[in-house]
Every structure is written in C-alpha cells, then in structure tokens.
Amino acid sequence: MSRQDWDERVAAAWAAFDDYAQEDAADFRAVIDALVAELPAGSALGPFERACAWDSTGHSDKAVPLYREALALGLDRYRERRAKIQLSSSLRNMGRAEEGVELLTPELTAPGDELDDAVRACLALCLSSLGRDREGLSLVLGALAPRLPRYQRSMANYARLLVDPGN
C-alpha cells in the first residue's frame, strides 16, 4: 500500500459520505475503520480519520478522545489544524466551548493557510456559546472584510471596534 493510494481511497470514501443515509452511519464508519486497519501501528492518521468519521456521524463524544490521540501522536500541520478545528467544534457541541476557545485562539497567530477562515468561524461559534458574541462577530467580519468588493476598510474597522471600542 502506498501512502498516496491510501490517501486517495480515504478521499474517495469521504467523497461518498453524503450517499450514506443517517441510518447507514455505522456502515460509513466501517469503511473508514477498514482503511485505518491498513495503517502501521502508532499512525496518527488512524485516530484522526476515525475521529472525523464519528464526528461527521453525530458522535462528538466518541470523536473527542480520538482527536486528542491523533494530536498527541503528531499530525502534519494541515491535519493538525483540521483536528484542532474539528475538536473545538466537538467540544462546543458537548458544552465545553471554553476548551475550544483555548485550543483555537493560538491558531489566530499561527502561520496561515486555507483553514484560517475555518479557524475564525469555529472560534466565533465557541465564543458565541460562551455569550461572547461581539468577539465572535468581530472574528467573522474580520475574515470577511478582505473578500468584499467594497467597504473592506470600513468592515475591518467595525470588526476591530466591536472588541476595542476605545480606539
């Protein structure tokens, strides 16, 4: 098994995810489990993919320890960020949004990539769950502002003023 072949088969499994009905969630997880069984012992990809499968089928409680295991074993940077985003979302779903905030806040100043907006969106949801809506809205507006055809500077300033009204 080559790693590229395995990655392609995992991607194909996820591409077919929407073909599974809610009552077939266990079948989808079995597909992922079979792929994970091909990995060498101690691979962080196993618990990561299993966490994603549990999470995507509505079981945040089973996903959380698997995300933590994958992070402890060491993922590549892209999957590490995905795991943190998804773990934070799962924690929020379980009523533990503060842990999600603690996990994602350092990602705001980490080297950026295509997941930056997802970090901000998930962090905004965690903040909102804690009653910190202005901070969450500031993150979302700040992420959106550069993509607007006009009013970029205004929206960026409004985002900043939501959390720093004195300036």
Describe the structure in your own words.
- The chain has 167 residues and is mostly helical.
- The chain has a single domain, classed as Alpha Horseshoe (Serine Threonine Protein Phosphatase 5, Tetratricopeptide repeat).
- It contains nine helices and no strands.
- It has helices at 3-15, 25-36, 45-56, 60-73, 77-93, 97-104, 116-129, 133-144, 152-163.
- Helix 5 packs antiparallel against helix 6 (97-104).
- The longest helix has 17 residues, at 77-93.
- The radius of gyration is 18 Å and the shape is elongated.
- The N and C termini lie far apart (57 Å).
- 29% of the residues are buried.
Q: Could you list some keywords that capture this structure?
A:
167 residues, mainly alpha
Tell me what portion of residues adopts beta-strand conformation.
under 5%
SSE string, helix = H, strand = E? HHHHHHHHH
Classification by helices and strands: mainly alpha
**Within the CATH hierarchy, at the fold level, what is the topology?**
Serine Threonine Protein Phosphatase 5, Tetratricopeptide repeat
Biggest sheet character: none
What gross morphology would you assign? elongated
Could you tell me how far the N terminus lies from the C terminus, measured between alpha carbons in angstroms? 57 Å
CATH class: Mainly Alpha
Number of separate domains: 1
